[in-house]
Amino acid sequence: MRLSARNQLAGMIQSIKEGVVTAEVVVKLNGGEEIVSVITVESVHGLGLKVGDKVRAIIKSTEVLIATEE
Amino acid sequence: MRLSARNQLAGMIQSIKEGVVTAEVVVKLNGGEEIVSVITVESVHGLGLKVGDKVRAIIKSTEVLIATEE
Amino acid sequence: MRLSARNQLAGMIQSIKEGVVTAEVVVKLNGGEEIVSVITVESVHGLGLKVGDKVRAIIKSTEVLIATEE
Amino acid sequence: MRLSARNQLAGMIQSIKEGVVTAEVVVKLNGGEEIVSVITVESVHGLGLKVGDKVRAIIKSTEVLIATEE
Amino acid sequence: MRLSARNQLAGMIQSIKEGVVTAEVVVKLNGGEEIVSVITVESVHGLGLKVGDKVRAIIKSTEVLIATEE
Amino acid sequence: MRLSARNQLAGMIQSIKEGVVTAEVVVKLNGGEEIVSVITVESVHGLGLKVGDKVRAIIKSTEVLIATEE
Hints:
Six copies of one chain form a homohexamer. Helix content of chain A is 10%, strand content 56%.
């Protein structure tokens, strides 16, 4: 499968916190940064996600804001 | 200003392509990856964005999907 | 690749309209409905999308609103 | 009320799972597919949603990714 | 039709700028603030939107970030 | 920090409801309207948000739908 999403950042799952409906998945990128994702608990179970798994964080370009420092 | 968005990735603007309403801004992250953002042309002008500017790419955690490799 | 996105609807590309930055892709679902997607022109070219291609429309569950009829 | 959202898929609520803040609503589309939506518990109660209700799943076109099969 | 979206802000269209695929619609809220929306040109035409129209800006709560001033 | 997001609405936090992963923050805008935001509990704690705080609700223009009344 190939995706239209322009942002596909490779990394490893560092932590998973599960609520009732949603779960928070923290991914340590190969470049060193951390990305936090909120997906459904069903998706965590459906994909069998666990700490240490190699994954990609996928982000549609229309979802990215730009901030300037000044 | 501090933001609730969990993902704030530092980098430098590599290119800007302007359409009529929207513009595509490519940011080279300090970690080496590229992030593509689609914002309005008005925002590009309002912030005075140009190639070489230091910026942050801001992404709300609910916008991040997870993909597994297999 | 497997995705956390819960909504993955199979169909065929019915039309593509390209602007400068964004493109509108209309997908006819196998179930008969139409789905409209706005992605970047770069993604259309990068994936080599054309009318008649079999694709899936992918939607994160946090992006789906519910409307009642009354 | 008429909406700018291009994707409005008719169906029936198949299940509702409530957390503290968010709820997961599964809609069986008339075309046979399932759509998963995550909205607030407050919205579920405010609209009085229950299994069997006829609803529409509403999706803004900028939220739809395209995936190719190869 | 009633919507799960928690944020429905009433106002009047102040301007419309059309590109090829997307259009920018500026809504002056009854409370005095301005809201900018990017939707498809097809939606602008399909709804017959024009300056002066009374509309509502609809925003899903998962799309709202919080910023603190300090 | 300045942001590309076109919609930045000033107000005061009226209530916070925390789940396990996500929290619902209600902001009373200076213009009188209410805005509901769903962010992570971690963000609520990281920013030290509490009822009465002056904040801004930030919304990317691509996330705003338009509804007509008829």
